[in-house]
Amino acid sequence: MNKKNKWVVSLTVAAAVTLCAGVFSACDGEKAKPSEFKDGVNYYYGDGQDVHLTGWFPSVPDEIFLVTEESEAVKMHYYNNESWRNFGVSIEGKYSDFSWLNLTMKSGGTQDIVSAFVKIVNPIREEGDNMNVLGSDVYFDLSGEYVTYSFYVPAIYRQILDVVNDVCLFPDPGMTGTYGDIYVKDAWFSKAQPEGSKLVNEQDSDATAGWTAEAWTGYNLRRAENAEVRLSWNRPAEWAGAFRTVVLPGEPVNKLTFTFTSDAVENAPDSVDHFQLILRGDEARWNEGGWWDYYEQWLVDYEKGGIYTPNEEGEIVMEIPVGAKLAAMEGQHNKQLLLGLQVESIPTAAGKYDGRGQMTVKSVEFSWDEDFEQEQPPAETLCWKVVSNGAKYYNISQKEGVLANVSYADVPKSLWANLYADVPVADRKGKVSVTLRNNGTEKVWYKSSLDSSTSIAGTEKYGTIEAGQTTTIVMETTQAYTAITLFIDGCCTDDEVPAETLFSGNVDIVSVTFSESETSIVNWTTDKEHLSVTDGTVTITELPVGAWESVSTDFAIEKGYSTVTISVTNSTDHLVKFKLSAHDVDWAQIGLDSEASVVWLEIPAGATWDFIAVFTPEQAAQVRRLMLMIDCWTAEDANAPEAPYNGIIKINSVTVS
User: Fold this and answer.
1) Three-state DSSP class for residue 213
2) The pLDDT value given to residue 380
3) Which of 179, 222, 280, 498 pairs with 298 at a CA distance of 20 to 30 A?
4) What pTM, to 2 d.p., does this model score?
5) Phi and psi for 417 in degrees, rounded to 5?
6) The pLDDT of residue 20
7) According to DSSP H, which parts of 298-372 are helical?
8) Distances (CA, A) of 102 to 34, 182, 229, 503
9) How do residues 347-361 score in pLDDT, each as one tens digit?
10) How far apart (Å, rounded) are the C-alpha atoms in residues 542 and 562?
């Protein structure tokens, strides 16, 4: 029995016992006694009357989070030198009798407006549960006048109130460097919404037009007049995102119109520096790191001062092509389709953006525009063919909305018959993305590569596509290539496949796009005795054998990327041995020496070779530094050069894909 089932059974048994006992004796005809505050806990015994909460305490008791009882209210002074500190009260009892949590509050001190949110802590959170019994973390603003704020407890979460221990109040959540006072005149649970109170977590989607952000992100979402939502941030968490439910119209869609204003914050009249828009579908898989991976398509990067400029009303209107992205996500958003907004939360952008600002999202509209310039991937001109020994098994045909459809039947297990497409010179770029969709009922195996006369080392990709899923294969090279090769199911030699022939199939080649590699500007440094480095040029001076000296650089890999390619030229007069590795925040090497995340190369004199390090998503998220060891020989190595010696090594580029 899993934890949740145990809890449900326990709660059911407890409820039955409580019902029989009448929480102190409904069975024997006595009334339940009234609630009380005892030993720091607000006890509720089931009498049905409102429970007024007292006993506020700070999450960390010190001189910067103080609780003072005053004549008409509890004064809470705070200074956020750390994110997510809060004030709380303890509760115990059958609080599922109530549907509303109410707080009468105001701000004070140095700030005119204090942002806050309330959390009823869910102590039994499991996969898929929300940590806040209120259903979501909804921010609201306090003013200098007392207002009663009411929070509705959704029916699906109400039973959890019976095992809740804490109700927490977060002033200026997630923001460091803020300080002030808040006053709580009253706090209570009730069965009905108090007259004249202000509903905070409205149940209709018009409250913030379906936009949500979890508390850990550091985003503050508020309602705004004549707009969908107002979002502010103060150095948000890594990879933070606010999300909005998308309901597509019945007709075809090819355009997203995203309209917003970049609002004034402190001394910045135009505070939005950078954000990314993505489409997020269903869960793809449970990540071993402890979170869900989702089906996603990245739409656009916004940079202040780029191609988008405000109109006369101060609004920035972005018209974004989405037809091909939605086509690639067919079958991947049966449960949900979300528009994600990631504002200044990318770790690699740290230092480039100040991380403080506010934007007002005026409108989000998905539509079809006959005159709108469509995405025209150069690969739409590609002609896919099948090699002669596979012609009897594979059929390539045209299909609306995709580049080609591949159907096949009775393919011998190890036929190795491939599809291929010649690539015109004008289309060839460093990175090639091939999107495939499995229309069949069984798992599909694939192998892809970029080829000239033979496949180019480092571009081969192997994998599987589950039934109904879509996968994008990314290949990258600095070498010249002439064709894309694709094996589907015929390359399967897996021993788990019992049949001599392959469970027929049907696969769409959804899209092929060519793009320049994402080149990262890095600052290589060293403190080694025999090395010096300037702008990627490493000078070797009297380096002895066995020195294992290195250059390194701060580096992080953005979400969605997993491959780092480093071009290195050996300008010495002899063979040089290298080791490329990545390290986490504690300088621990990521991956074993034998894994794909660690690369060993011996580059001949005068040659330029690529290091291609491949990371799992979990490994990529940990990368904080790259290290290139130069001439890492031991005295026993037969190819070790005579030493000490001098020379030049050039690190030409670092790209991620």
Assistant:
1) coil
2) 47
3) 222
4) 0.43
5) -90, 130
6) 41
7) 323-328
8) 19, 15, 24, 59
9) 655 566 777 889 999
10) 36
Place of tokens 């190795």: 416
Cis status of the peptide bond prior to 644, with omega within 30 of 0: yes
User: How many whole angstroms separate alpha carbon 519 and alpha carbon 653?
Assistant: 7
DSSP class of 183: E
- Angle, CA 422 vertex, CA 418 and CA 427 arms, to 5°: 135
- Of 473, 471, 462, give the one whose Cα is nearest residue 438: 471
Q: E strands of 324-403, at which residues?
A: 338-343, 356-367, 384-386, 394-397
| β-strand pairing of 51-52 with 418-422 | unpaired
Mean per-residue pLDDT of the chain:
80
E strands present in 263-311: 274-287, 291-303
Give CA–CA dist 23/160, Å, rounded: 17
Point out the least confidently predicted range of 19-28, 132-141, 220-229, 414-423. 19-28
CA 425, CA 429: separation in Å to the nearest integer? 9
Q: Which residues contact 277 (CB under 8 A, 6 or more apart)?
A: 256, 258, 298, 299, 300, 302, 320, 339, 340, 341, 342
State the Cα–Cα distance between residues 319 and 260, nearest whole angstrom: 12
Residues 6+ apart with CB under 8 A from 281: 294, 295, 296, 329, 332, 333, 335, 336, 337, 338
Parallel/antiparallel/unpaired status of strands 179-190 and 166-171: unpaired
343-381 b/e (C-beta count within 10 Å ≥ 16 → b): bbbbebeeeebebbbbbbbbebebbeeeeeeeeebebee
353: CB partners within 8 A, 6+ apart: 273, 274, 344
**Can you tell me which residue has the tokens 């002899």?**
574
Helix (H, G, I), strand (E, B) or coil at 272: coil
Q: Which is nearest to 210 in space by CA: 345, 359, 335, 338?
A: 338
Is pLDDT of 377 > 60? no
Q: E strand or H helix at 8, and its extent? A: helix 3-21
Distance CA 236, CA 341 (A): 12
Is 429 a residue whose pLDDT tops 70?
yes
pLDDT tens digit sequence for 84-142? 789 999 999 999 999 999 999 998 865 556 778 898 988 886 544 557 888 777 778 88
